[in-house]
Amino acid sequence: MPEDTGQHPSGVSGALGRPFTEQVAFFRRKLGNQVPTQRWDDITGAAHDDAFMVAGAVKADLLSDLAAAVDKAISEGRGIEEFRRDFRAIVKRHGWTGWAGEGSTGGEAWRVGVIYRTNSYTSYAAGRYAQLQAGNFPWWVYRHGGSLEPRPQHLSWDGTPLPPDHPFWRTHYPPSDWGCSCYVVGARSARGIKRVGGTPGKQLPDGWNSRDPNTGAPPGIGKGWDYAPGASVSDTVQAMASKVGAWEYQIGKAFMASLPAGTADALADSYRALPGTAADTRRYAAQVLEPRPDLPAPPARTLGRLRSDQARAIEAELGRSVDGFDFSLDASAVGHVRGEHGDPLKEWRSNQRAVTIADFAQLPRIASAGELVRLPQKSDMGEDLFEQRVTIGNDTFVARWVARGRLRRTVALKTLFIEVKKRGPKPTS
């Protein structure tokens, strides 16, 4: 059996840049239990394995938007700057005030960093816990994360190999405090321990299992951090990981089909409302229409899961289930829109305007806001068409979709055009 190769990347962006199925699965299992809280310690310890919370976020719609932003960061490997933009948009949209850090650039940076890093590190650690359990490694090796201001106790544990059932892991499995970036790797032999940076035979320092009277946790462990992230749900995470892995072509899909309907609906709309989702959709269209050898466009881009009311509307018309389907945009649709509705003169003659790359950014908004209406005609491929019409400014965006199944359970864009209230001057070409 091979040694463990799951080395912890340096920095959070590295961890998020390579999301793995167990990490995504751990976080997504919490999305169905979003807990409004006033303080960070309203829930502690292993309860975090089962619930998503942001201190001070007590409104359900606010919490759903924050959950969607964090899920996108983890599942799509987004950096902290994009998460910061999403956070600002959510705060503004909900008029959220009174949150810790509000009122200064430094305070905001601290709060954004806490939410981003805590969720990324704990999901990473929990996913790795499930992997280590599944790998049946006889040795788990504690590794220091290399922070610039290391905690002395964490340094003292660096390189220590212990069996997986050692009581140390029940309280000291990292992260063990705010900002902790320590991690654990598996080994099968003394040589393997050395290979992953450990020291065979190294013992824990005296007093490792004592308790700090001020925190109730062992020395070096933050208050409420004396538990192993993911340990209480490792079997569930491992099972869910197989589901996530089945989505390989769209690992960034934001939601699990097993979430409760109300939660899934709120998260779906939250995902589409994120500024980053609109920007990603526009960038995807640009990748297709203005291809670069160094930045190839993937086959499709998810726009988030259908709400349950949208799924029911399609099911009522087609007589088949579309439960768990997501809206999507693929390269052929982008090319079709440019070919059919990208000519300014042709669209002017039809009381329409040409669709630009920037207009594709409106698709997430359209998917959430527009009622799905079945059209009497079919597509050129004989597919049933569903139309959404949404007025944005002086323009009416008309999106037409087709429901597909089998390999890709998706409601895919077929075409997009834009009607105008009043035609402008005739284009010269």
Q: Name the helix and strand elements from N-terminus to C-terminus, one letter apiece.
A: HHHHHEHEHEHHHHEHEHHEHEEEE
The chain-level structural class is: alpha+beta
Number of strands: 10
How much of the sequence is in beta strands? 5-15%
Quickly count the helices: 15
Q: Give the count of structural domains.
A: 2
> What summary fits the major beta sheet?
7 strands, mixed
Radius of gyration: 25 Å
Multimerization state: single chain
Q: What is the typical, i.e. mean, pLDDT?
A: 80
Task: Report the uncertain regions.
Answer: 7-18, 240-256
Helix content: 25-40%
Task: Provide structural commentary.
- About 7% of the residues have low confidence.
- The relative contact order is 0.11.
- Helix 4 packs across helix 5 and helix 10 runs antiparallel to helix 15.
- The chain has 2 domains: 233 residues, no CATH class; 147 residues, no CATH class.
- By secondary structure, it is of the alpha+beta class.
- It contains 15 helices and 10 strands.
- The strands form 2 sheets. Strands 4, 5, 6, 7, 8, 9 and 10 form a 7-stranded mixed β-sheet that branches. The chain has a 3-stranded antiparallel β-sheet with strand order 2-1-3.
